[in-house]
């Protein structure tokens, strides 16, 4: 009998039964006031008169009027660079102990995003709230005694000018609560290994020693880890070594494009739970099994604003124009893509995280990530977003009975000086690229009217090159590093695409 599991499950069920229904809009108003009060005496707070904002009749409206939007480049150039020099009280009281390194999907140069002690606590609390939400998924008591494989970046953080640096997954794993450490795998020693391939090799060698009930990590790297374990032990699927694996907590990117290739590694279906943990904070998590949408964390150190995702509000580099209109949680609508704006306990203010979201349930504050502002092609008016690209890949998987875990695209002129969409698609089957291109084009015409119009005018056509999926992983390794928060760029500009094509040529 799972005695400990019954105790844990009982605590979770009791906590859920006594939880009062929180009003997300009211919670957000409180969070904004708390943030402004805490930071009013910082350099940033004085510069933008947080005290006068707090004294205004409509704090949210005045805040949006007085404080401009910041993307990483702007806030780092004007404010965060001082933190690297050791300056105190810049955008948040004191000085951050950690900086999350994030090259995101746009290049080799790492962003350094401050992570305060308050943010560490906020992330922990959001994680605890997600555990309590498991009461809605009706897992048996013995599930709560199984171990959890958290596959992130190395927890061996590097010291730099009196602070520690690493990816957010490494920072959070190095701060796990003491009571959780016996459940956490691969364990502290293996998690500290910097080299991705070496770390995964150690995981494969130790896999039989663990009773894994849940996985957590970015889909592409979880897949590679599972493949390594299966290969090392000559298995048919992962459930032959981890028979009690029931849950995969996904995050970082949309799971849809990976679903088919991921399921091929399993012996039976498992529950997939989406989370939204970024370098800037724990934004949302899936709180109930009836939907794969995620509930925004509205009461815990992050204040959200939303800008309608329209081409006229977006600059060529993916950032917002200064006067793009923002709405609060009280005024969001269904069936509208929004650019997500956050202000946080790490001293990010009206910060453009770069993601676009859509509300699936306004009352519950449930969202889906629909793409990236930089993963949006509007060349010759095609207005093609990453969620439509993901949908297209899943349609190709169905049509051709295949798996497509990775892809990237660039819009550029061909040798005839006409515009084309150039696609590189990761696939191990011997498909006909022209047939794939035709099917891809037909699907996008039916799914996106702007694309259909563009195809009748200035967008000449679609060109597809099929390559092995491992080339995408090697590209990530060559340009950044494997594992952790690293994600493949879905859309490239022409300069980066030329680098990509040269790299692909060297690999084939």
TrEMBL record:
GO cellular component, one term: cytoplasm
Name of the protein this chain belongs to: GH3 auxin-responsive promoter
Residue ranges of every copy of the GH3 C-terminal domain listed in the record: 389-495
InterPro entries: GH3, GH3_C, GH3_M
Residue stretches making up the GH3 middle domain: 297-362
Alphabetized PANTHER family for the sequence: GH3 DOMAIN-CONTAINING PROTEIN
A single GO molecular function term of this UniProt record: acid-amino acid ligase activity
